[in-house]
Amino acid sequence: MEAKNDTWVVFLILGMTLLVFGILFLEGTAWYVTYPVFAAALLLSGLALVQATSSSPSG
After folding, report:
1. Distance CA 12, CA 44 (A)
2. CA separation for the pair 4, 18 (Å, rounded)
3. Do 45 and 15 meet the contact criterion of CB atoms below 8 Å apart?
4. Which residues contact 42 (CB under 8 A, 6 or more apart)?
5. Any idea where the domains of the chain sit in the sequence?
6. 3-state DSSP of 2-51
7. pLDDT by residue for the chain (59 residues), tens digit each?
8. How many C-beta atoms lie closer than 10 Å to residue 27's C-beta?
9. Who's near 36: CB < 8 A, 6+ residues apart?
């Protein structure tokens, strides 16, 4: 059986988790704390998008 290459799902989940964490728990903190969290969430989600679009369809 062929192994599926869905590593982009992990990056998407991590990115969305960081985004929700930043919105819910870092609301009152300084900008230099929240912006890196949002930037990391954006980068992880972008990496997931790149991996999802660059993977060749199986079939």
Report:
1. 6
2. 25
3. yes
4. 15
5. 7-54
6. CCCCCHHHHHHHHHHHHHHHHHHHCCCCCHHHHHHHHHHHHHHHHHHHHH
7. 455 678 899 999 999 999 999 999 999 999 999 999 999 999 999 999 999 898 766 65
8. 8
9. none
